[in-house]
Specification:
alpha/beta; 6-stranded parallel beta sheet; 6 strands; globular
Length: 248
């Protein structure tokens, strides 16, 4: 198998893209870099003493790896913010990805690192994008062995089963003992999301926020997906408001 990047632009796009639905056009770099800077601004607020912050990032980022774009993602905002925590002196950081889709890019970036725990709750990859990563037997490699936890779930999963997985994920985060938590916040687990097969109700997002708050760690929320546009704001605010209420 050849892994040599071609010179021609058509070949290069195919080499570095994981999915053809993600186009690059005028303004793409400006938007992607601005989105990453939003995450860094929020991370900096926590570094300066805030208990939590929310980065409203567009485009999202968790499908972007160190050398790969796709899934509407160009720069991995959550990974960039995580590295900023490390660079600012954090010994350990946990990333909790609750987007419906597996954060394949984030996993790839930190897969061989033991200072970053990556935990993802997502649709089983046999049936859901990004398809090629996200299986439960992917647990990390090298120094990162055991620092990767995937929790794939089947079509039709509702909050009872999903919430049990969230509780297990949070217990894993607690045992890791991170100095900060980065939440890849996707609201596409909602029952009416057009590209999801989970069945969470709007009130369930309040329970998500409260459980994350119980971790008691400095927490950065980084916006990822959500495609039921009319409900996206409500569901996102439900997470953040419940988190704030539980920590106030």
């Amino acid at each position: 198998m050849q892994i040599r990047p071609p010179r021609d632009i058509d070949g290069r796009i195919g080499y570095y893209a994981m999915a053809a639905e993600t186009s690059i056009s005028a303004g793409t770099w400006e938007a992607a870099s601005a989105s990453a800077n939003v995450a860094l601004t929020a991370q900096n607020a926590i570094a300066d003493g805030a208990d939590s912050a929310f980065a409203l990032c567009r485009p999202p980022g968790h499908h972007a790896a160190s050398d790969l774009f796709g899934g509407y993602c160009f720069l991995n905002n959550a990974a960039i913010a995580t590295q900023a925590f490390i660079d600012n002196g954090a010994g350990r950081v946990a990333i909790l990805d609750i987007d419906f889709h597996h954060g394949n890019g984030t996993q790839d970036i930190f897969y061989q690192r033991g200072d970053v725990l990556f935990v993802s709750l997502h649709g089983e990859p046999e049936n859901a994008f990004p398809y090629f990563l996200g299986y439960a037997d992917e647990t990390g490699a090298g120094e990162g062995e055991g620092a990767n936890l995937n929790m794939p779930m089947a079509p039709g999963t509702g909050f009872e089963a999903w919430g049990a997985c969230l509780d297990q994920a949070c217990r894993r985060v607690e045992s890791f003992g991170p100095d900060a938590v980065v939440v890849s916040l996707g609201a596409d687990t909602f029952k009416d999301d057009p590209i999801s097969f989970f069945k969470l109700e709007s009130d369930d997002f309040k329970r998500i926020g409260a459980r994350i708050a119980a971790l008691g760690r400095p927490t950065l929320f980084v916006m990822e997906g959500g495609y039921a546009v009319s409900a996206l704001g409500v569901n996102t605010v439900n997470v953040l408001a419940a988190f704030e209420d539980a920590t106030s």
